[in-house]
Amino acid sequence: MQKLTLKAGIGMMVALGTAGSLALANDMRSETRLDIAPGGTINVLNSAGSVSLHSGSGHQVLVVATSHSIKIEIDQDTTPDKKRVEILTHAKPEQKPTTEEARVDFEIAVPAGISVIVNTATAPITVDGLSGEMISLSADTGQISVHNVSKAHVHIRSVAAPVTLSAISGGHVEITTAGGAVQLTNVSGPLVNVGTAGGNITFQGDLSGGGAYTLTTHSGAIDVTLPETASFDLSARSVSGAVQNDFPLQQKAHTSFVAKPGSSFTGTSLSGSCSVELQSFSGRIRVKKQ
Amino acid sequence: MNCHKFQEVLPYIIETGGDAEEEGHLQTCPHCAELVQDLKYIATQAKLLLPMHDPSPRVWTGIAQALHHQGTIPEGRTSLRGQIMSFPSQAKSWTPMGWALVAVFLMVFSLLLINYRPHLPESQSSAQNMSAQPVALESDDQQLMARVSQRAPDVRQAYEDSLREVNTYITDAQQAVDQDPEDAVAREQLLDAYQQKEMLYEMATARTLP
Amino acid sequence: MTQVKKIIASGLTEAEAIERAKGGDAECFEALYGLHKRRVYSLCLRMTGNTAEAEDLTQEAFLQLYRKIATFRGESAFSTWLHRLSVNVVLMHLRKKGLPEVSLDEALEPQHEDGPRKDIGARDNVLAGSIDRVNLERAIESLPPGYRIIFVLHDIEGYEHNEIAEMMGCSIGNSKSQLHKARMKLRDLLKLSRAEKAARR
User: Fold this and answer.
1) Are residues A133 and A39 in the same domain?
2) Domain span including residue A74
3) Nearest Cα to Cα of residue C145 among C112, C173, C172, C105
4) Which residues lie across from A194 on neighbouring strands?
5) How far is the C-alpha of A236 from the C-alpha of A278, rounded, in Å?
6) Does the distance separating the beta carbons of A121 and B57 come in below 8 Å?
């Protein structure tokens, strides 16, 4: 009996080990360092998998790529003037990988002051702690997350990928998504512009530093949560959705539309240090106190 | 005519076509035929290279500073962005020229489609294999769906759902503007809606991923 | 909202924004910048192949626009006028750098082959279907400057040979010849790139 148990155990271990090896055999990890000049740009084009960018040091981009199929090739190159690093995944000639086979996961360490442009189809994109001039992200589906970025122009486009931004300040933020939901937490800057067709927009912050905030959606809901001390000039309108406001507002002398109770409101809170425009067609709009 | 003579005149005939002798050589010489095919393909692909690059924000900063130093922009306005905080206080009337601007957006879509129509996949069978095309999508939108037909099913569905949502957005915004041409917010929403659609077309056509 | 949207939302057309910019309206000028910056910058980048130069030239083009916008009479579309202005800015810059190819002297681009071109590699090695945007952009960047300028102006930006000849001070035949050489060079670069990738596998 003991011999049978031992044999069974050994057999199971061999089987598990083989399965694990087979799984790992298809995963290929590579690490590449690419020179980049100050003020340069990293351009990433990846269909599936994930793209994660975080702050690095020095003047080299560190790219750790994990691919899951031999049908996919990764091109990584620096232009002669080192101003641009290109990272591109594509199917090898005559190969037709499935979505799973096409997955390549990237972990990229980005030196300070470097801009990034990332285009994916389904790959989730995560950006944390970068300090370049421009962060431009584009995805069909998947997910886009940006955290801890200051003084950068953040430009995001998505078909249906939900977008999450937190701790962003000092730069322009422009988000356009057809169906993705947008969540902004502690996002401030001279310009914050969000447009969705069907996605909900959620904003939580203090509107510090002035600026112009425009949140526009067709059928999504807009939820804005602000501290009691927030100072803003507000204009909100939903054509057929309900509107709700917790802040006492001083009425404005001139508006660009006639405010209809229940579907729109305008006014100034405290000194009106920044402007906030909320527009929806059929979604509800809520401005709440924290 | 031999290959040497044909390739000597090729720069001058590649776009307009050659005479009977030159065309005859093309029919009979696979090397020159392949060469012409490659050159035309390169030219065609080049036309698809849309302006894809935005300059960094420091370009505008440099322009504004230069104009300020020249005295052409008053002091205190070297950074124009962020200075405008008030909502437009007076709505402008919606002039016929304003409608021309909307027409410009429609022309942008048309130009995108004209440029990309010849480059749709020759076989539309993959598009036919998709879930049945709903009647609501216009023919231009169906061409966009054909363009994304090679992508993953969930991506195709996302495009289709988004197209419908954006089309409804455009319709609603257009109705709002029709009801009140003076409504600046409605006009802005109409432009937002068109920009959403433009984004979908750009994203569907700009990518060359597997 | 962006300057572009504010201008448009207030009912101004681009033509009206141009008129206001002529009068020194800085916001309208910034809106025009927002509308056209991408095309101007992309043109400069493709013609120079260098991002720093392209940004400098974009800045110069818009500064020239600010100085010259009062002379825009509307005989052509504004974008066409601005585009031509930008091309001239780039060409002037290249001439200052001392690039003789700008004048399209054929002798400076000697032919390397004596006989007619045969295929590189197998007969079924046609390019059709195998070019992606990134590889093509990279190959264009690798072109010698004279070839790159002609290729960008004709095949990407859509100028006709007679317009290129006028801009560059050369003959139409010369323009056609240089374009052909640019395309041939691109063909070689793209095939080489494809062969190198195949060899690495």
Assistant:
1) yes
2) 25-141
3) C105
4) A175, A215
5) 4
6) no
d(C-alpha C66, C-alpha C43), whole Å: 19
Element (H, E) at C172: helix C172-200
Contact A140 B176 (CB under 8 A): no
Q: Do A247 and A206 form a contact (C-beta atoms < 8 A)? A: no
Question: Is residue A189 domain-shared with residue A129, that is, in the same domain?
Answer: no
> What is the identity of the amino acid at B179?
Q
Helix axes B153-179, B184-206, angle to 10 degrees: 160
Cβ–Cβ under 8 Å, residues A199 and A217? yes
Each residue's pLDDT tens digit, B54-84: 888 889 888 988 888 776 665 444 333 333 2
Q: Which residues of C touch A174 (CB under 8 A)?
A: 2
| pLDDT the model gives residue C9 | 56
User: Would you call A279 and B203 a contact, using CB atoms and an 8 Å cutoff?
Assistant: no
Residues of A in Cβ contact (< 8 Å) with C130: 93
Q: Chain B: list its partners (3+ Cβ pairs within 8 Å).
A: A, C
What is the number of CB-based contacts under 8 A between chain B and chain C?
172
Contact A39, A84 (CB under 8 A): no
With 90 as the cut, is the pLDDT of residue A276 above it? yes
List the alpha helices (DSSP H) in C10-105: 14-22, 26-48, 51-68, 78-96
pTM: 0.61
The kind and range of the H/E element at C173 are: helix C172-200
- The reply to whether A133 and A222 lie within a common domain is no
For tokens 């990034």, the residue is A116
User: What is the tens place of the pLDDT at every residue in B162-209?
Assistant: 999 999 999 998 888 888 887 878 888 888 888 898 889 888 876 544
User: What ipTM goes with this model?
Assistant: 0.83
CA–CA separation, A45 and C91 (whole Å): 32
pLDDT of residue A147 exceeding 90, the answer is: yes
Instruction: Give the model confidence (pLDDT) of A199-223 as tens digits.
Output: 999 999 999 878 899 999 999 999 9
**Which token pair is A227?**
């501290």
Check residue C106 and give its pLDDT: 45
How many helices (H) and strands (E) chain C has is answered by 9, 0
- Whose CA is closest to A236, among A259, A252, A211? A259
Q: Name every chain A residue with its beta carbon within 8 A of the beta carbon of C138.
A: 77, 86
For residue C85, the one-letter residue type is L
Domains of chain C: 3-98 (1.10.1740.10), 121-200 (1.10.10.10)
Are residue A137 and residue A185 in the same domain, yes or no?
Answer: no
